[in-house]
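Quick illustration for those who missed Monday's session on complexes.
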Amino acid sequence: MKFFQKSKSYLLFVFIGFLFAACGGNEPKQSAGTQQPTKVVPNYHEQHRPQFHYSPPTKWTNDPNGMVYFDGEYHLFYQHYPDSTVWGPMHWGHAVSKDLVHWENLPIALYPDSLGYIFSGSAVVDWKNTTGFGKDGQPPLVAMFTYHYMPGEKAGKSDYQSQAIAYSTDRGRTWTKYEGNPVIPNPGNVKDIRDPKVIWDDARNQWVVALAVGQHIEFWNSKDMKSWSKLSEFGDGLGAHGGVWECPDLFPITVEGTKEKMWVLIVNLNPGQPNGGSGTQYFIGKFDGKNFNLDPGFAKKVQGGNAVWLDGGKDNYAGVTWSDAPDGRRLFLGWMSNWEYSQAVPTVLWRNAMTIPWSLSLHKTQGEYHLFGEPVQELQALRGTHVDLSKSNIRGGLDLTGQLDISTTLSEIELEFAKPDDYKGSFGVMVSNKKGESYRIGYNATTNQFFSDRLKAGDSSFSAEFAKQQSTINRFSNAKTVKLHVFLDVASAELFADNGANMMTETFFPSEDYTQLKIFSDGGNPELLEGKIYQLMGIWK
Ligand code: FRU
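Prediction with beta-D-fructofuranose bound:
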């Protein structure tokens, strides 16, 4: 990502934003006879506003940052520009949740300063007080982030990114930047060196940070998070390299149903994902305290420019996991957008949202490792009325509009289909409105792929990339039945298929809300074995 370019487009987007306001969007309007804009208080019911996803009260967001669990709270910081709905001087916005479902907005945690904008990074609880920042016997929260010094970039230099820390001794409510910053200065000539993900490596009694550097990952270690040494590099010639590597994550995980411990390295990159734009790849291997060594089987999959992708949709980027999540869970959250069009999507008061939180697990099937993602079970608290669907043939589709006690398409849908070997055709979930706009997500048996189709889903005029083609991902599963688990919010769909073996996340912008819901089938006579549809409640009062 060339950040200077992002800011150059700023004026254009401000102008577009002005046009929106003039055309009757819900941005502050000039009241007659005065030059003062009316203050608009967000009510979270603005057009396209997600109802059960986290989105900032107003203005711009990109990556989730600093996710850490401490003292009963899940912290979510996020890349935020509080003065505009496009990218600009980055701050860390802040929200907390007790249940991963309902979020409380808190004041901005980190502001830019003379060392630069506050780019992405992570946060940890320093349980052993290795930093000495703790107070009254309580461990501090320590955030590690990238400073981006914009005057340096504008002057054509290449040393404008460095790594820094800040700490909090009041449960993340206020933050103090360390006076010895930066803790990892720029080596002098490295343009892209950022997004530190810091973890405590218990076996070696050390802090380890994964840093995205150009198109590889560097691992550094430290005893106190203030003084760091480089350990190793990973990634040359491995995985996708269509763009800059960003926002890594490194964590151990036990293979499901075994005692085998492996390590996952998540690497976001922009651009270079198969459906276009920014996306998330991952690697499975072992971290020995110094090097990340790929599993030999996995190594074969990521040769020659091939990669393994976490999500087959276009709108799940910069995702990483929570530090210190309770009960050994590995909880993940992504930014529900794509750098191809994130600054132009047709929202007025705020721009962009996060995915729902996922729980990750590692599975080994016939010797192959594969990361699964499932919606956290806490989301079940949002379930309202539901409808059971029994065994039926879906030739020509099944219209559920009106048959259900479900007034909007805000819903969670679980469907299981039989998949006879000779079945050719596709099936899935379709939502539509009276204007003839529709969105579909489902499975294509002919290609053995899951797909998301937003070609006619509503407004796509803001970017030629948004509705260029369907997004697809090859199915990973040999199961005889196909299971679809879909979450539909006002402006997004998330698919978790085959118990979390295949995921897709995409956004859409219908000109009026979808009110019609259908199970569609194209070709053949797919058999629905069973299904459940839950109405979901919104989280914003
Ligand atoms: C990823 C990213 C990060 C960077 C941040 C800046 O989306 O480009 O690499 O730290 O956004 O906002």
